[in-house]
Write a structure and sequence with these properties.
CATH superfamily: Thiolase/Chalcone synthase
Number of strands: 13
Strand content: 15-25%
Radius of gyration: 19 Å
Largest sheet: 5 strands, mixed
Oligomer: single chain
Shape: globular
Bound molecules: oxa(dethia)-CoA
Number of helices: 10
Order of helices and strands: EEHHEHEHEHEHEEEEHEHHHEE
Structural class: alpha/beta
Length: 341
């Protein structure tokens, strides 16, 4: 019996801003060095949105690119989900902005999810559930984190890591399952590892001093948590538990948080460099968007061949994490739909 409500990933897109901030630029802000940052993280430079207008223009382009690659009309989209924890604006939501930016006329539902660097994996899980239930036929998932807006550029422990970027994907109902494994988890008990309290306003009726909204991180705690949890999560919970042989998957596309973490998982899987996708060197940690950007760039640069399969895994604030195995079908990212930044 064939079914037509399996989740197929039919198109992806991504966009990164033009403004580059190098490690050398950071040496003018505080005491640090290219060597320190590169050896600890694998990062050489990151990108930042020059303005809100640029961020929204890139959001439009990435989303349009995914829709074009999927080969559907934008009016066929019946749900928009945006994964964002560091949005350009809180209201209207990023997903409603996408609806407007793309000029989608139908009153399709649109909502944002806040799971930081796990945003793409959580978004895929939601999309797969809506497709399998028969509720939706075409879902547009975007990831947008304006990290440069929320990190403290006087804090050398966090501002070295993050960069801005956008990802997009269309998940459509079809006869093949492109998301054979997807799993999401959280442990709020260690939520204090990465925090960003909402900014305080100027309500005159309570004792309150206005504050900025700033992201802070206990880097060592995060590192230890990720190093303890993620490698075995991938080998045991994502692969072995689903009967998937490590060698049957073509690529590892991890959240781009730290090259040392990527390397640890690579060694655990015994994968050669050709199977591991990394863009942290030139983009830093783009939070919810990092996996989608790595997939798009990987295909564009010929490092990822399609059709193929990839292990994906995101992790970050919450602490939240999630992983899966996804199929990268041919045409998911067409060269003719690439735009120049
Ligand atoms: O996407 C969310 C997930 N996030 C992550 O996965 C991030 C995980 N954490 C990390 O990648 C690492 O913790 C960092 C790269 C952020 C930091 O590396 P670390 O080895 O954990 O450094 P640390 O914070 O423990 O600091 C070690 C030393 C300190 O000096 P003292 O106190 O020992 O004298 C820091 O002050 O390095 C100093 N330091 C720096 N020195 C030069 C911290 N940041 C810098 C810097 N440049 N940028």
């Amino acid at each position: 019996m064939t079914t037509n409500n399996l989740p197929m990933i039919t198109g992806i897109g991504y966009a990164v801003p033009g403004k580059v901030v190098t490690n050398n630029d950071l040496t003018h802000l505080y005491e640090t060095s290219d060597e320190w940052i590169y050896t600890r993280t694998g990062i050489k430079e990151r990108r930042v949105f020059a303005s809100d207008d640029e961020a929204f223009e890139l959001l439009r382009r990435a989303a349009e690119q995914a829709v074009k690659n999927a080969g559907i009309d934008k009016e066929e989209i019946d749900l928009i989900v945006a994964a964002t924890s560091m949005p350009v604006q809180f209201m209207p939501s990023s997903s409603c902005m996408v609806q407007k930016l793309l000029g989608i006329q139908r009153n399709v539902p649109a909502f944002d999810i806040s799971v930081a660097c796990s945003g793409f994996v959580y978004g895929l899980d939601i999309a797969a559930a809506y497709i399998k239930s028969g509720i939706c036929k075409n879902i547009l998932l975007v990831t947008i984190d304006n990290c440069s807006r929320y990190v403290d550029w006087t804090d050398r422990r966090t501002s070295i890591l993050f960069g801005d970027g956008i990802g997009a994907a269309v998940i459509s109902a079809g006869s093949e399952n492109d998301i054979p494994v997807i799993d999401i988890r959280a442990d709020g008990h260690v939520g204090d590892y990465i925090t960003m309290p909402a900014a305080k306003g100027n309500c005159p009726f309570v004792d309150q001093t206005p504050t900025q909204q700033i992201c802070s991180m206990k880097g060592q705690d995060v590192y230890k948590f990720v190093a303890n949890v993620i490698p075995s999560y991938i080998t045991d919970d994502i692969l072995a538990q689903h009967g998937i042989d490590t060698d049957s998957v073509d690529y590892l596309v991890l959240h781009q948080a730290n090259q040392r973490i990527i390397k640890a998982v690579q060694e655990r899987l015994n994968y050669g460099d050709d199977k591991v996708i990394s863009n942290i060197e030139h983009l830093g940690n783009t939070s919810a968007s990092s996996i989608l950007i790595a997939l798009g760039e990987g295909i564009k640069d010929g490092k990822i061949k399609t059709p193929s399969k990839a292990i994906i895994c995101g992790f970050g604030a919450g602490m939240c994490w999630g992983g899966g195995v996804i199929c990268l079908r041919e045409g998911i990212f067409k060269q003719e739909n690439i735009f120049q930044n």
